[in-house]
Amino acid sequence: MTQQLLPCVEINPSTTPDACVIWLHGLGDSGHGFAPIVPELKLPESMAVKFLFPHAPERPVTINGGMRMRAWYDIKSLDFESRADLEGVKESAAQVEALIEAQIESGIPSERIVLAGFSQGGVIALHLAPRYARKLAGVIALSTYMCEPSLLGSEAKDTNRETPIMMAHGEQDEVVPVFMGNAAFKTLSESGFNATWQTYTMQHNVCIQELNDISAWLQKVLG
């Protein structure tokens, strides 16, 4: 594969990393958006986790009047079934897969890599992980939904069916309504994936309790 790797904000532990979290941002954000959460997670130094926050490519986004911004895919409408542009999702999933493969080549096994995503980033995580041929440590999907859920049954691989998938959503989310996240959770569960579902009293964002729960979850799957 000769494609250039996605540029990332990289936060390394004080010792040689033996695990990695790849965290995908939402529409119009960048890798810088979520990087400040790393100290908030208060992970023990003994865990030696590297964090990568890749920047999505810039592209025109239809619902924003064709304005160019960082986006993992185009959003042509806010319709539940067709919100995510499948071709764009596949393209970004391939770029993120290349990033995972690069971490594996650097010496971090796939079973020590967590794929995380917020909103649009979560769509990519939920598209890639069930179709990925290598075993991952876990998946975090926050305030997000699933692209073309009807395709999951025929395209999913068995490799990550037992992999823990932490799904969380704000009850007052007006950007991605909570029913969309819950529908993705149900689709994963019905397809035999090991997903959990949690809601928080918040909008389309993250909150302190959620970060505390993510920290505990990461310590469990990577500890």
TrEMBL record:
Query: Residue ranges of the Phospholipase/carboxylesterase/thioesterase domain?
Result: 12-221
Gene3D superfamilies tied to this protein: alpha/beta hydrolase (3.40.50.1820)
Question: Which Pfam family is one of this chain's hits?
Answer: Abhydrolase_2
**InterPro entries per the record?**
AB_hydrolase_fold (IPR029058), LYPA1-2/EST-like (IPR050565), PLipase/COase/thioEstase (IPR003140)
Q: Which UniProt keywords apply?
A: Hydrolase
Q: Does the keyword NAD apply?
A: no
GO terms of molecular function: hydrolase activity
Q: Which PANTHER family match?
A: LYSOPHOSPHOLIPASE-LIKE PROTEIN 1, LYSOPHOSPHOLIPASE-RELATED
According to its UniProt record, which protein family does this protein belong to? Belongs to the AB hydrolase superfamily. AB hydrolase 2 family.
Q: What protein does this entry describe?
A: Carboxylesterase
Q: Organism, per UniProt?
A: Alteromonas marina
